[in-house]
Amino acid sequence: MKISEEFLSRMKDLLGEEEFEAYVKSFDEERLYGLRVNTLKISPEEFVKITSLKLHPVAWVNNGFYYEGEERPAKDPYYYAGLYYLQEPSAMTPAHMLPVMPGDKVLDLCAAPGGKSTELGAKLKGKGILVSNDISNSRARALLKNLELWGIENICVTSEEPRKLKSAFGSFFNKILVDAPCSGEGMFRKDADMVKSYEEHGPEYYAAIQKEIVGHAVDMLAPGGLMMYSTCTFSVCENEDIIRLILENHEDMELVKLPLFEGASDGIGLSGCLRLFPHKIKGEGHFMALLKKKSRQVPAEMSRWGSKKEKALPEELSKFLSMISKPLISSRIEIKNDCVYYLPEYFPENGGKLRYLRTGLCLGEMKKERFEPSQALAQSLKMEEFKQTISFKKEDERVIRYLKGETVFLTESEGSKKGWCLICVDGFPLGFAKGNGDTLKNKYYPGWRWQ
Question: Is 232 considered catalytic here?
Fold first, then answer.
């Protein structure tokens, strides 16, 4: 891999002679592979017991693990059940260190493809709201798939400029993550394409974009709220200088010192930030800083969907929902263009003026006096929450047949199934099928199928 002399000169100035040599040597080391367990569905301890992957814990992320490079975790049925997300270990850190609690109103401003949003959503445990945004519509679609695969129901996925989000939401959010677009210097060892991109647009180009983004983000932060800023680059102008700019321009913002852990480094010229270098930890390069809004102003008003009156639902929809044991509040169910949605618990008064890819959990679709449940609904359920289920062992060849969209047949000992059935692998939902005796007509979403 050829790296520009300009970049190497910058890193030498940043690190000093001795540490720079250690950094350069890190390029000769093997790339590291990581996955993060979905704590909405399974604990890290239980996942380790059931997986066939050879895992080693990421020391600073309690649900993060390294896996061997020759393994193929994206071809494992547990991946299709949403039990884990493939993510570089250092990239797990910002969402892990942002203290999100159930009931929070959370914004992931630059969210695609969803590595950080999936963790934020898992922390919410179905309470509050997560708005995940990416300015690119195609990337936002990939983001939506990952959130639905993880079974996160209290989501709003948008594809808007930060300025427009600010206009709609105001100071609504009490937790914000800004994983800003950057020059990607910290990913050079992992991805050679980042080097090509760096040669086209260096740190100064991205610093201008970052300054605009964080300005809007601060305005969307509620009084007392916390904002995590992160990049996967080393340059001071994209990192500490951005934090200084926030502190200089917003008197009500203060830096919250992030705790260091083994291998992590303090900020350069600005103590309290956190830096990760590939020659000091088992991961790639990353920067993060946590800020708090000190103002005691009253937070933006919000609506609670569940406080509205109960509503009558179509008979065929009610009949299907009676098969689900977990409580669904009818006032939060909305039917639009024959699609049925379960809206988040909270929603801002002016939040409807945006381009949404999804508002809440898509329950399914009304089709000529019948209701057809969605893939997202299946992923959001636990096996015990649906009336009719069938669970196959991961080794059962019918699991792959189902994921490929093929018809599945039951054995005599498994009995017969009539109507909607939730298909699971080792007790973890994969999707729906329509039972007709010993035959299960496959309803697995075509866009998600095993390739």
Answer: yes
Beta strands of 81-166 (E only): which ranges? 84-86, 105-108, 129-133, 155-158
Nearest-5° Cα angle at 435, 430 to 438: 110
pTM for the predicted model, two decimal places? 0.95
Q: Which two tokens stand for residue 323?
A: 């098969």
Nearest Cα to 110, choosing from 82, 132, 137? Answer: 132
174 touches 99 (CB < 8 A): no
Q: Report pLDDT digits (tens) over 42-86.
A: 999 999 999 999 999 999 999 999 999 999 999 999 999 999 999
419 and 366 Cβ atoms separated by less than 8 Å: no
Q: At what angle do helices 240-249 and 203-220 cross, to 10 degrees?
A: 40
Q: Which of 156, 232, 273, 424 is catalytic?
A: 232
Quote the CA–CA distance of 167 and 219 in Å, as a whole number.
10
Nearest to 187 by CA among 113, 90, 263, 98: 90
Cβ-Cβ contacts under 8 Å for 433 (sequence gap 6 or more): 402, 408, 417, 420, 421, 423, 440, 441, 442, 443, 444
* Predicted local confidence at residue 58, as pLDDT: 98
The 3 state secondary structure assigned to 33-68 is EEEEECCCCCCHHHHHHHCCCCEEECCCCCCEEEEC
User: Which of helix, strand or coil describes residue 29?
Assistant: coil
pLDDT at 351: 65
